[in-house]
Amino acid sequence: MAWTWRFEKADGSETEPAVAPEEFPTQGDAESWIGEVWKELLEGGTDQVTLLDDGSKVYGPMSLHAQDGYEGENV
């Protein structure tokens, strides 16, 4: 299994991420990585991400924008 992220604009169209994407051996590894780089992705033009397992959608889209004025709580 390969866990990957799809990087999207707010309208759902795919975008090129500001940070080089990786394939991860576990869901936890993928989620840890997004937790580390979400601000860089957001600053680079990614609005939301979708988690994929071997190309199949697991969940998302998940916004990278802060909610309720507190950054980081939504990721």
UniProtKB/TrEMBL annotation:
Basic and acidic residues bias: start-end ranges: 1-12
Region annotated Disordered, chain positions: 1-26
UniProt superkingdom: Bacteria
Name of the protein in its database record: Mtc1 family protein
